[in-house]
Each structure stands twice: as structure tokens, then as C-alpha cells.
Amino acid sequence: MATAEINGIPIRYEDSGGDGPAIIFSHGFMMDHTMFDAQVARFGSDFRCIAWDERGFGDTPAPDHFTYWDSADDAAGLLDHLGIDQAVWVGMSQGGFLSLRGALAHPDKVKAIVLIDSDSAVDPPEVLEGYGGMLAAATGDDDEAFEAVMQGVAGMILGTEELAAEWIPKWRERRGTSPLDITGQTLLSRDDVTDRLGEITCPVLVIHGTDDMSISIEHGRAVAAALPDSRGIVEVEGAAHAPNMSHPDIVNDALAAFLADL
């Protein structure tokens, strides 16, 4: 991996290189750039694929509180650092949060967006309260509570035992080093940009798992319906919150068709 100093943060990223059109992949909460390995493997030879670790995840630190607007600035700054004028922004969950904000704050940097199980709205108070409890358990000293939360998170995000077996050890290894107190506050305190979706004029494709328990598919449908240049929604039957991992062929085919149509 390489490192770029962006907005005072050492951002870690991988760059497939090449002269093809650029795609920047932004991961979800608790994840890192490797969640897009299947997409980079598919598109890395024909496109310049940038997969990065956002603040507080993977190998990128988060020394202080930040917002998803800051993360959008990080993505735009990383593109500038790499000499990329414009890219397709592919974002899963919180990666989609920052991609929408990127289109609002840096429209010239965003050629198109692919939202994977993401949303423009905020969670209702009872859901935020539940997530707050999970974060408290994940950052506490109770090993049993930590393991229970990780199992629950794996079920919500990944949806398969195979992926859970791969990612739970990663989360266990990062325990105490990943600043979930900071990144969790970013997640829980994010603002609602639903009333600004009409300002996003670039093409947008929505991909959403039908069995997503974190962000229901109704939210994906609502976002797709509200965008001026929506290219519709691809509903991935039986997928949880990360269909690009659990159903990579379906997601890759949808992404390929979208890219070809730009």
C-alpha cells in the first residue's frame, strides 16, 4: 500500500495504475479497502482503481473527530494527489455517505456515483440508541460482549458464515487500535442530505441487498427515485449489507453495465 498526506491525515490506499478511467472505492463502517478486492480484480486492468482506507479504519488513523464531509474532502484530495481530475465514486454504506457529500462539495471531481446499500438520511432515534449500545460494548473491556457484538455486526454487514470467519478475526486483531469511539460518533452524528439530492446531477446507480438489516432496501429505492439522473436500482436478492462481497458477480455485472453506459 501507498500513503498520501491528505488534509493532515496519512491516507493509505492502493492504486491499480494504468491510463483507464478512474474509479475510487470507499468502504463501509468497520471495513477497509479490501472489501472491494473482487471489484478491483474485475476492473483493475481496464480502469484505474483506487481503493483506500478511510479515517479510522484499516491503516489510516483518525486522530480527532471528523465528519463525512471531511471524508469527502479526503477522497477529493486523494484524487488530486494522484493527478486524477475526475472519477466514478463507488461507495458502500458510509462510503456512499461520503460519496454523496463529495458530489455536493466537489461536483467537478465526481463523474458518476454507485451507491451500494447506502442512504442520504439519518437513522431514527431508537436505531441510533441501539448502535450506541453496540459501540459501547465494542469499545469496552468485556470480552464476551465484544465477541457478541462482532457476531451481530458480521451478520448485519456480511450475511455469510464464510465472510464472518474472514472478518471477525480482523476486528478482533484491531480491537483497541481502531478508534471506534471517534468513527462511531461520526456515524451516529451524521447529517441528513436528503433535501439536497436534487443538486446531484451526475449519473447515479443504486445497488442494494434485499435482506439488508442495516439500511433497508426501501431507503435505497427512495434515494434512487429522488436523484435527477438516477440509473435505477439493482436489487440483489438475498444479500445483506455488503452485496459486493457476498454476491460479487451480480454487483460486478451491474457496475460493468453502468460504466459502459456512461
Describe the structure.
By secondary structure, the protein is an alpha/beta fold. The chain has one domain: Alpha/Beta hydrolase fold, catalytic domain (Rossmann fold), CATH 3.40.50.1820. Helices cover 44% and strands 18% of the residues. The protein has 10 helices and 8 strands. It has an 8-stranded mixed sheet with strand order 1-2-4-3-5-6-7-8, sandwiched between helices. A hairpin with a 2-residue loop joins strand 1 and strand 2. Helix 1 crosses helix 10, helix 2 crosses helix 3 and helix 4 packs across helix 5. The longest helix has 15 residues. The model has no long low-confidence stretch (mean pLDDT 96).
CATH class: Alpha Beta
Work out the helicity level: 40-55%
The biggest sheet, with number of strands, parallel, antiparallel or mixed sense and barrel status, is: 8 strands, mixed
Give the overall shape, derived from the CA principal axes: globular
- Ends distance: 30 Å
> How many beta-strand runs?
8
**What name goes with the CATH superfamily?**
Alpha/Beta hydrolase fold, catalytic domain
| Mean pLDDT, all residues | 96
Please identify the oligomeric state. Answer: single chain
Instruction: Provide the structure class.
Output: alpha/beta
Provide the number of structural domains.
1
Low-confidence stretches: none
Question: Could you please say which CATH topology applies here?
Answer: Rossmann fold
Radius of gyration: 17 Å
Order of helices and strands: EEEHEHEHEHHHHEHEHH
Please name the CATH architecture: 3-Layer(aba) Sandwich
Number of helices: 10
* Spatial arrangement of strands, main beta sheet: 1-2-4-3-5-6-7-8
Strand share of the residues? 15-25%
